[in-house]
Design goal:
The chain has 421 residues and is an alpha+beta fold. It has one domain: Orthogonal Bundle (Cytochrome p450), CATH 1.10.630.10. It is built from 16 helices and 10 strands. The strands form 3 sheets. A 5-stranded mixed beta sheet has the order 1-2-8-5-3, covered by helices on one side. It starts with 7 loop residues before the first helix and ends in a 16-residue tail after the last strand. The relative contact order is 0.18.
């Protein structure tokens, strides 16, 4: 069975395809249309994501759709060295160890370092939202993580519009199915994003005024010594983080809001019940991961689940299908925050490449859900709303999330009087 990730049915309900694949297709199979091996099943996906010997990250960000010669010529200027997301051993181990030393990876450390910052950004966006009777919540879901990741890196929030446009185009180029004309434009945006990161880091390194945020921390760690980190590696780390650090969280936040607003009782619980809030976040990540497919390349001939994958093969690791594996989860297509084993989901990957921003993403999701549920208890999905996702092999993000606010004077909600804002 084909995946067909750019089709209308898939972008309305990808889980329906995962269900059929898990029920009727081999868990490891070759898709000749995509030219990619498809890997499904929770155990298979975990194995590949954790195996850095037989599967490489080097082509993780190489476009799924072959690029035109014109676009390829433009992309030659994107000469970022491999770090973090795109690196294999030993570069990955070295750069990840540096990030782990500087970037909080636990819930407690994330709250201590970024809790106030995230709450401020959430409150600002929530205040804007309160002025509207109808709105598209994807505006909130996008602008929160975008502004937060710029704050974390120490980049100016005034650059958010450009960063969003460049990053969106980069994602369309890598995981979409653009025309040759669009590829050319997206390639220019991708290079512009890289130049933006490289120029910002180089200017700070040359001036000696490293500034705030993670970029400043990385330059201080470098301490004028290329043996620690090169300036290009600092810029590449900034590129990795700005590229991955907001789009995935925007997708997850859209999914979490959608599932919360589907059930008014669920929405009400998120305001004051921290246990329910935590369970809702984890079940969102399991049920609707923001990345439902990720790319790897086999370095050797490898046998997985009885199927031999040739060396040098591109593989699409189906995280969404893994999170819906009935061998692991009872009724996996049902959104159930009370389910057991939800924490075994693979939304943040597995093994050495486990997402370093997982704690920050969880902090943003919980803060946003709690604050909106408290401040806007009368929020609901707009009448006639139907889910639709942006076409992508990897990123799963709503195209829109229309909501309305019922008039609280005509439609009171019990138990909200005196609730902190």
């Amino acid at each position: 069975m084909r995946l067909d990730p750019f089709s209308e049915p898939y972008n309305r309900d990808p889980a329906a395809t995962w269900r059929r694949m898990l029920a009727t297709a081999a868990p490891v199979s070759y898709d000749p249309e995509l030219g990619i091996w498809l890997i499904a099943g929770h155990d298979n996906v975990r194995t590949v994501l954790s195996d850095t010997t037989n599967f490489s990250n080097a082509t993780t960000l190489a476009p799924v759709t072959p690029v035109s010669a014109a676009a390829d010529a433009v992309l030659a200027a994107l000469d970022a060295p491999p770090v973090a997301v795109t690196a294999d051993r030993p570069h990955h181990l070295r750069t990840r160890a540096i990030l782990r030393a500087l970037f909080p990876t636990t819930a407690v450390r994330a709250q201590q370092q970024w809790g106030a910052l995230v709450q401020t950004r959430v409150d600002h966006l929530a205040t804007d939202l309160e002025q509207q009777s109808t709105a598209d919540l994807m505006h909130f879901a996008v602008h929160l993580p975008l502004s937060v990741i710029l704050d974390v890196l120490g980049m100016p929030i005034t650059d958010a519009t450009d960063v969003r446009a460049w990053t969106d185009d980069f994602a369309r180029l890598v995981w979409g199915n653009p025309t040759p004309h669009a590829q050319f434009a997206y390639a220019h945006s991708s290079v512009a994003l890289w130049r933006y990161c490289a120029d910002a880091v180089t200017a700070r390194a040359e001036s000696g005024d490293y500034g705030c945020g993670l970029i400043g921390d990385l330059l201080r760690y470098r301490n004028h010594d290329d043996a620690n980190l090169t300036v290009a590696e600092v810029a590449a780390l900034a590129l990795n983080i700005v590229g991955a650090g907001w789009q995935t969280t925007a997708g997850a936040l859209g999914h979490a809001l959608d599932q919360a607003l589907t059930d008014p009782d669920r929405w009400a619980r998120l305001a004051d019940d921290e246990h329910s809030l935590s369970l809702h976040v984890e079940e969102t990540l399991r049920h609707s991961p923001p990345i439902d497919g990720w790319l790897r390349q086999s370095t050797t001939e490898v046998t997985l689940d009885g199927v031999t994958i040739p060396a040098g093969s591109r593989c699409l690791v189906l995280i969404g299908a893994a999170n819906h594996d009935p061998a692991v989860y009872d009724q996996p297509y049902v959104f159930d925050p009370l389910r057991t084993r939800a924490g075994q989901h693979l939304a943040f990957g597995a093994g050495p490449h486990y997402c370093i921003g997982a704690a920050l993403a969880r902090l943003e999701l919980a803060t946003a859900l709690r604050t909106l549920a408290r401040r806007m208890p009368n929020l609901s999905l707009a009448a006639g709303y139907q889910r639709q996702f942006r076409p992508s092999v990897a990123l799963r993000q709503h195209t829109s999330l229309p909501v309305r606010r019922r008039d609280a004077r005509r439609c009171p909600v019990a138990g909200t009087a005196g609730r902190p804002r």
